[in-house]
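Narrative summary of target 7.
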Amino acid sequence: ILNVGTCLRLEMSFVSVLPAEFHPSFRSVALSVIAVVPLLIILAQRFLQKRFCRPLHAGLKYQSFDAKVGVEDTLVVDCLHPSCPTLTHHKGSRTPPELKDDTSGGIVLNALKASHPILRGQRFVTCNHYDIDGLVAVWAAMNPASALSRYEDLLRAASIIGDLRELDLQSPSASEALHLCCWSNSVERNRFYRPFEGSETDGCDQKYNYFLQRMAGVLEGLAEGNAATVCAEGRDEYEQVIEDYKIMQEESCVRDRLPKIGLVILNPPRPVHYYALFSQTIGYDTVLTIYTENRYELECKYCGYIDITSRLVFPRLDLRALTEILNARETAVGVRWTCSRFTDSGPILRLDSTTDKLTKAHRYGNPCERPIFTSSIPPADFTSLVVSFFSHGLKAVEAKNFWKWEEVHRLNRSIQWDLWSLHYKTVVTPNVRTSFSLDLAEGDAPEIGGKWAVVVVLGCNPTSSALRERIVTACAVWEFLSNTAPALLLTTGYDSQKQGVTEAEHMAETAKELGVPAEAILLELQARNTLDNAVKVLEMLDDAEEPMEGGG
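Modeled conformation, tokenized:
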């Protein structure tokens, strides 16, 4: 960069070579313009040094997320922001790939260790919500020296326990980290409000101001072995977690592990604290918990909501198709199967009261803090449904890192859940089952066309939005009946919409996709009155001189 002296020498040289015949006023203007050059260069140099060459601060200052002052010098952690630099594990963030970690706290610690350029030029740090991982990320950015030299293992462990709820008491500093988490949970609950129970617009700022002032003292006390004193407000929760953790270490509490679909099936004797429950789910994405008295909860873990780097993960599946089948089978009174969208931070499929719906705060809270209702579905049937659901949805999917939300949405749109639900729909009523079984037992079933014992007739309004659903229903009936006796599926309908293909042909093709073999399908292409024409076709089967298309 040119220094001032060089600039002045260049200016004087330039002025000296101006022709004498130039008007004096021009020479004056030229000299004035040239005189500004050194000042502009100095200002540009200072700006560049400030913007790109500023040394790493000893620590950033906490800034309210809603504050506008200093936003250009603000580092945003554990959440997304449209313009500020971010260090977070949330999907879609601009976090530098080389800093990625399972938790936002871990990402900030990685940035501090590397003296990463993203930290340079920043004066403030902020987050739009309060939780343990956010607290670790903010505090570490404010106190980099202490975070790295004294408390790194403890802080990393606290972020994992607090955010992923995966407790491993054998890992470094796990006990101290658990004390920190229980202290934060208890104080937040007792002095402020539980997560998702109040407004974070104002409450978040109040929580950070409270905890950040006390964090250093708590960490120092934990390092010195004074957990009982510095984390006294979290002692009851800590003791509960330890008790529940011991229960979950029993072999009987783990029924099955299915790594090919990322599912672990747990069988604890009673509902326990999340930190204890998820101690047996490390490495898995979905948890089916089976309690006594036919009580169940199916939960998609938080790892599907964020970017995980330590292992490969499966994408989340939309649980609504499974919920529909469960509700069709459920006979318990006053309850109904419900589930959150797969884009929720922690979707849970569970049996809820029809009059008292569970809030987000209750769903986020520990299983031992919410009611879990008894189902009429036996454990073996429930487990079979869940395993079948995930096996179907993930049959062509490989686990990987960094699933984008667009990919997860696209995958869920592509899954043909009706192909799966076909095998589980309860479409044949008990009285029909009984009657049909008795007819077969007594030898009264008709022999149609010398081959078929029963015929399922399918005709439908081609413009109906429920057309595919009705085809699925008919195919489910056919499948049930064909397991007992030879069954024919008869599709009827002409080309009423002038599409070049009849309704009968369209429905037959869909039925083939759903697993009905072509030799069990008969098409009637002229029908305008489904049942009348179907009966006529059936009467013709015995007398047909040539094989009829399809099942004929």
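The first strand starts at residue 61 and ends at 62.
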